[in-house]
Q: What sequence folds into this?
């Protein structure tokens, strides 16, 4: 699954659908995908694609007015056992994100459906349960009043902050995005994950290369069900974490470990994700460097084309304030510079080579200016998070100085106060191919030809 971040952001609960049915080809594609699903706990889950039209199902199947016009549903059935509900949450969320990529809407339903009639259609076996269904179909442009009320009641657009969910070593120390490092994207995708009544029961503690998942069980919440629905939410969180890490080609696995961490009341340890080896960077010799070279749109595109660069992201670095906006950086004298976060595999490309490529698209003697862009936010800079990179950078700068009579004015500092830029700035030139760029097309061609 490519670009999991995009799919997580794109997915939302759809309760109102068009009357357009899914084609037989799409339904076959979905049923084939059922066979590919698996989960970290090896639990067997059965999926049934149910159509509401025909065989009297249109009259019998119901969601008590919550869902409008859905022509099809997916029902999940399983035998309850240890980690069965977590496995269900994991697999079904993978399926839902897959459907999101196909442009198909979904909605997690744990209580508001006629369980008995759906059980009949899914041919529920003795001892099995049917905890969850989801409608599937094409989202209607206009949503119903019920849909709007349900979204408002479930607080579907709100999420807890990092300091409420993620911790370092124990529950008394908050985990910052900087401390999470390479894993910050995976944790952010967990934060954005859907959950019953949007309660977000997951609490995660980072301990070196291991992330411990705890469930905060809202007192009395699951009494309305004959199972702990928040266990499903924990599986969803695990899926978001695993998919994001997998998208970055990082190796690791879930396991249940002996726990010494003292947890707050109503908070229980569930499982852990363990990286292949200790350290925040796991993918081969994957590392990161932050480069500022004028307008970050072009610098980001250029560096993203280089073989060995795994991912790029634009943001604001080394200013005087925390979490600035684009407007703050441009007009409020925050001191930040437009910067590109570069994650690269050092077994494929060295930091020295990345810096040489970087020098090729900037004027290293220009103060607070690159191309037509003028201002301190356009100054050139190299910002590192690994102290061992410092010597490599200064050696590289020393070599660069030999090529110029004028002083080289590239700022070299440890990274500080980095904030990811607004979404519309990310991959800007992919979204706007004719957008402004201070880097010539010949440079982009050269970057591609190095691959």
A:
């Amino acid at each position: 699954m490519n670009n999991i971040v995009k799919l997580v952001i794109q997915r939302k609960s759809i309760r109102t659908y068009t009357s357009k049915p899914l084609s037989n080809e799409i339904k076959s594609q979905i049923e084939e995908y059922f066979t590919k699903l698996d989960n970290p706990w090896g639990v067997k889950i059965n999926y049934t694609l149910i159509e509401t039209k025909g065989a009297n199902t249109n009259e019998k199947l119901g969601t008590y007015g919550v869902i409008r016009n859905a022509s099809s549903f997916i029902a999940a059935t399983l035998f309850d056992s240890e980690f069965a509900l977590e496995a269900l949450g994991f697999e079904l969320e993978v399926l839902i994100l897959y459907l999101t990529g196909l442009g198909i809407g979904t909605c997690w339903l744990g209580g508001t459906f006629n369980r008995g009639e759906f059980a009949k259609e899914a041919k529920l076996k003795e001892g099995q349960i049917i905890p969850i269904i989801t409608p599937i179909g094409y989202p209607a442009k206009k949503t119903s009043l019920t849909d709007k009320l349900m979204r408002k009641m479930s607080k579907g657009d709100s999420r807890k902050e990092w300091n409420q969910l993620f911790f370092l070593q124990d529950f008394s120390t908050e985990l910052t995005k900087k401390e999470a490092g390479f894993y910050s994207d995976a944790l952010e995708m967990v934060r954005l994950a859907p959950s019953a009544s949007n309660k977000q029961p997951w609490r995660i503690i980072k301990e070196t290369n291991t992330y411990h998942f705890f469930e905060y069980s809202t007192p009395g919440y699951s009494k309305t069900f004959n199972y702990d629905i928040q266990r499903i939410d924990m599986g969803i969180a695990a899926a978001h974490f695993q998919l994001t890490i997998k998208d970055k080609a990082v190796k690791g696995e879930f396991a249940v470990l002996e726990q010494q961490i003292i947890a707050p009341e109503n908070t229980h340890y569930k499982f852990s994700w363990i990286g292949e080896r200790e350290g925040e960077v796991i993918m081969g010799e994957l590392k990161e460097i932050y480069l500022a070279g004028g307008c970050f749109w072009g610098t980001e595109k250029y560096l993203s084309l280089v073989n060995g660069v795994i991912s790029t992201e634009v943001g604001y670095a080394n200013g005087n304030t925390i979490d600035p906006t684009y407007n703050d950086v441009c007009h409020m004298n925050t001191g930040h510079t437009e910067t590109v976060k570069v994650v690269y595999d050092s077994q494929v490309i060295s930091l020295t080579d990345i810096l040489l490529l970087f020098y090729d698209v900037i004027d290293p003697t220009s103060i607070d200016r690159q191309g037509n862009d003028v201002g301190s936010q356009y100054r050139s800079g190299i910002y590192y998070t690994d102290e061992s990179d410092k010597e490599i950078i200064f050696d590289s700068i020393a070599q660069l100085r030999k090529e110029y009579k004028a002083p080289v004015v590239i700022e070299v500092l440890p990274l500080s106060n980095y904030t990811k830029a607004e979404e519309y700035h990310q991959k800007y030139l992919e979204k706007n191919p004719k957008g402004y760029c201070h880097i010539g097309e010949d440079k982009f061609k050269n970057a591609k030809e190095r691959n």
Remarks:
- Residues 317 and 418 are 4 Å apart (CA to CA).
- Confidence is low (pLDDT under 50) at residues 54-59, 277-284.
- The domain at 162-275 is CATH 3.40.109.30 (NADH Oxidase).
